[in-house]
């Protein structure tokens, strides 16, 4: 596709034409965070249009849900949707399923779920910021953050035996209770991790080069963010004060004290790439606050008491949603008179957030497009499902 | 430096075969294609990050297939992606190796039955040298796969003519 966009006359009267050029970015590209393919229309180095192409990781999630022998077997597939934040995905599915089945779970289960979910949020943001740093040319924060992410994975591993995909949160309960020593190790992690957060905050987020690369780039205005149904750090980075944990407090989030982090436009316009990144950075502090409170008031109880032996819901439907690391993650379950779900639809935040990329990258440089993709924090398993 | 101190005090001549020399050089600097597909890519990232540090084996991620020796197929290969993987493999210069990481790229993994868009094993499009099982494999498992690949390279011969 080449078409004339502009004609420039030189002083000697010669007519110069600029032509648009189409560049393919991906599916194999180090900074598309997976197998995203972007068709980029360029005018020189300026981005004119971005068309995302998806489906390179379409793993037939919804088809699998219909073919499982019961509701519980969906959980491992839910894990593999957003593989960076598997705990939160299970949480969302289980919230929807418990709403459908009208199960009340013990208080201890709620608390452990919240602890796991917040630890997972930290782990996910660590990857997001670490790889975003690599995209911007900073390798050190990646190494620091992965070192501390391993500590979270160790906690998960001692709880359920898996490092990445857990199958830990079950409908009506958990697969295991917390192991001995978990509380102490988590407390120790919370204490140590604050040092790293401070260190990397100075190293990356207030680095002059990093600010130059990210401030005023890919500005997402408030109204556009709402119109495109963005959620999570994308939405809060644009200055919209909305968090499902506070505004629709599922399970027990209303019992904890914490703040919703909102982008303020400290380095440039509100809603630029720097703001979105900073929202993630500051959210980790809030997650630590929630974890510390939850651990301090962890009630006793049997975590497997409410797990149903056989799941056969009355026909109907339910929608459950949680605030994942990427935004509002929801599952819509339609049940018929059967032990398998009739249909499960996932509302994936990464997919919705990605749809805004065309609007916010128009007029940016090609190199800034890398920054914009990094700040959206997509996980292709969730985009394509 | 232990080896050099003890054995080569008086002279700095080493006698070896051409094959051994070439293989030693090749297996000590396996450049990997920086190319993640799915969940396993996160474990691959963890394997090359601080705690596991795959670079101590000379595995350096490169962004272009022209500079790579080994392709780690990390994750589910869908039908749409399969043709791209074939093309990337064809762009790599020989001798080239493939590590299939995780159940999905070994055989389809959890998606083997109803995954209408999932290729049931990457070995249907490109030849695979080492299979690493697991869903996802731990970074240690990937490193073990890498050591297995190094063993394979150590026993190869570039100099001698191959039997046809």
Characteristics of this structure?
heterodimer; A: 2 domains; four-stranded antiparallel beta sheet; 15 helices; 45% helix; globular; B: 164 residues; 12% strand
How is this structure best described in words?
The complex is a heterodimer of chains A (385) and B (164). Chain A has 385 residues and is of the alpha+beta class. Chain A has two domains: 48 residues, no CATH class; 325 residues, Cytochrome-c3 Hydrogenase, chain B, CATH 1.10.645. Chain A is built from 15 helices and nine strands. Chain A has a four-stranded antiparallel sheet. The two termini of chain A are 31 Å apart. Chain B is an alpha/beta fold and 164 residues long. In chain B, the strands form two sheets. Chain B has a three-stranded parallel sheet. In chain B, strands 1-2 form a two-stranded parallel ribbon. In chain B, β1, α3 and β2 form a beta-alpha-beta unit. In chain B, α3 crosses α6. Chain B is globular, with a radius of gyration of 18 Å. The mean pLDDT of chain B is 85. At the A-B interface, α1 and α5 of A face α3 and α4 of B.
Topology of helices and strands:
The complex is a heterodimer of chains A (385) and B (164).
Chain A (H helix, E strand, L loop, with lengths): L3 E6 L5 E11 L11 E7 L2 E8 L7 H7 L7 H5 L6 H16 L5 H29 L4 H21 L8 E2 L2 E2 L7 H24 L2 H7 L7 H6 L5 H5 L6 H4 L25 H24 L19 E8 L4 E8 L7 E5 L1 H6 L2 H4 L5 H11 L3 H5 L1
Antiparallel strand pairs in A: 1-2, 2-3, 3-4, 5-6, 7-8, 8-9
Helix pairs in contact in A: 3-4, 4-5, 4-11, 4-14, 5-6, 6-11, 11-14
Chain B lengths: L1 H6 L10 H11 L2 E3 L5 H10 L11 E3 L7 E5 L4 H13 L5 E5 L1 H5 L22 E3 L6 H16 L10
Parallel strand pairs in B: 1-2, 3-4, 4-5
Helix pairs in contact in B: 2-6, 3-6
